[in-house]
Amino acid sequence: MTPVARITMALVALAVLPGGCSQGQGPFRTVQLCLAGPQEVPNFVSFMDVIAQQRDMEFADRSGATEAELRAIGNDNVRVAHPHVNIGAQYGSDFGFGAGNLGLPTRQMAIGFNGSNLEEAGKFANEAVAQLSTRWRVYEVPRTSGALPLPNCN
After folding, report:
1. What does the DSSP assignment read for 80-132?
2. What pLDDT sits at residue 154?
3. Long-range contacts of range 20-23, CB-CB < 8 Å, 24 or more positions apart?
4. Rounded to whole angstroms, how far apart are CA atoms 121 and 76?
5. What is the pLDDT of residues 54-64, one digit of tens each?
6. What pLDDT digit, counting tens, does each position of 93-149 carry?
7. Chain centroid to CA 85: how far?
């Protein structure tokens, strides 16, 4: 796995609120999608917030803070999208998601699903992907590669 892919997977795993994953546990499912352009980022964040609210999940948006922190670090090996996205939601430790575009072009989003209750987490992931698919083309990300920039994001 490339360094950018590892960083992207780390963002997806860390984007969720504390308690979402046990230490060292990454998402059990990751999907990726392409927005029409940077102007669609707020719509994506709102869409994910609605998905979270429909399931009484605690939603967090650290996008602005994360972008500022990444720019302050100034690592040339890490692409910092603008606007940067780092959001997540959690329903206790049962299930949740983290989403963002770290290491990806601004209009590409990776969404990782996690949870300790794999039955409920799997059901939530399937429902969320179905909802996302009504608006965007959703790509399954192989566990062996992590989310990488999609060559034909259209």
Report:
1. --SS--EEEEEETTTEEEEEE-TTS-TTEEEEEEE-S-HHHHHHHHHHHHHHH
2. 58
3. 20/88, 20/90, 20/93, 20/96, 20/98, 20/114, 20/115, 21/114, 22/116
4. 36
5. 999 999 999 99
6. 999 999 999 989 999 999 999 999 999 999 999 999 999 999 999 999 998 888 999
7. 8
- Positive/negative CA dihedral, 40, 86, 123, 153: positive
Interatomic CA distance for residues 8 and 2, integer angstroms: 10
Residue for token pair 């969320």: 128
Show the CA angle centred on residue 83, arms to residues 81 and 89, nearest 5°.
100
CA–CA dist 9, 25 (Å, integer): 11
How many CB atoms are located within 10 Å of the residue 3 CB?
Answer: 10
Q: Taking the mean position of all CA atoms in its chain, how far away is CA 112?
A: 5
**Peptide bond before residue 83 is cis, with ω within 30 degrees of 0:** yes
Strand partners, 29: 113
What are 30's two structure tokens? 């990751």
Residue 65 phi, psi dihedral angles, 5° rounding: -65, -40
